[in-house]
Amino acid sequence: MGGTNYILEATGICKAFSGVTVLSDAALSIKAGELHALMGENGAGKSTLMKIIMGIYTKDAGVVKLDGQEVDFKSARDALDAGISMIHQELSPIPEMTVAENVFLGREQKKIKGLPFVDKKELKRKTQELLDEYELSEYISPGMKMKDLNIAQVQMMEIIKAVSYNSKVIIMDEPTSSLSDKETKILFGIIDTLKAKQVGIIYISHRMDEVFELADRVSILRDGQFIGCVRIEDASREQLINMMVGRELEGGYPRNTTKRGEVVLELKNFTRKGVFEEVNLKVHAGEILGLAGLVGAGRSEVMRALVGYDKLDSGEIILEGQSIQIKHPKDAIDHHIIIASEDRKQLGLVLCRNIKENVALQNFDKLSHAGFVRKAKEKASVKEYTAKMATKMNGIDDLVSSLSGGNQQKVVLAKCLLGDPKVLIMDEPTRGIDVGAKAAIYNIMVDLAKQGIAIIMISSEMPELIGMSNRIMVMAGGRVKGEFEDTENVTQQEIMDLAFGGK
Question: From residue 120, how far is each of 129, 153, 157, 185 by CA, in Å?
């Protein structure tokens, strides 16, 4: 990876969170005027590496060089000042401010030096210049409030903001995930202009077609390690997929051998415009259905719409042969369709409350009479279900925040099971938990399937997906791309080929 012609070079980068290694000897190098694609499965460490380069995370080991000089940024501001900017996958504009105010936030020109009065006219002028230069005036104006923009316009505004720093290097993390085909072409035009100005671009994407159209070189991360770098003209789709998934499947998954029962849940033509389209899905009693796909594939979004978190444009839900309506999460709970969200800290738990309150939280109908919670029943039920989950705790009055990640997940599952699910949706059920806790969760899943519960599991861990699922559906770009009935013989490459939009 060495060389003197790199505008940015990172070598030997290591990072661990709470003892869990996320990056180990990761590396990347960028030339001026180059678009360098960074690829890897979900969880490969791509975003973590970028956040280290940007000074958002501190590295545990390794070296970052800019223009041949070693740098150690302590904040994103340090990186910006040095000439590196990043367009994050998670957009975070300030809704009540205008486009111009967002673009130049923290860099406002004052009307009179030393006085706290912003020259708004100058802000608008500079923003308009950028919009004109990159041919975006048709879509955005400097005075528009951020809250009035659609997500594609917000994404384009973030691109303009990054460009406004006159950066030497711009990091783009899944920049087309919210863009239409027309808007994507506009972005590609901006990229051409930046490359002509000798700006180096790091481009994180799961979209293989984009990578082959745009990239000069591609680097692959797998399980936090640098696997290799290839010139795009020397690369093939199959080679890149193999580099991303070239590991042996881990053993030790408890196979669900329960005989598949009747169809419990069917989704027909599920559509939320711009997010997912014409999704059809069936799950049977006693079955673990795996949903595979990459970031932006639409897996979690389909499940969120199913349980009433998000609005559905069209589609039908059939539960045990009957068409039902779900307009609100409570409707889903009433129909015994329960979700264990991937974000347990934000959507699954109230961390400042105790275990008893968390398990009882969405089950008050079951635990109350005439509007009053029956305390004895609540206590007995919570003890019963936390025991079923083998939750390690001093007692049900322990704060959830005091538990390990694996035991927090068990509390989420106890809460879900107290609701007597017919369908249990498990979104990234083992994310962020240790190996021992993972094994416990897997055994719980198999036990639940034996009880006739239909389980839908979304997972970004390929070995887990293949090891635990009876059937696997693959999504890409908001659509179902294919299905594998024989999960004992399916390969990671076959799944990833569909996940990257194949067939």
Answer: 14, 21, 18, 31
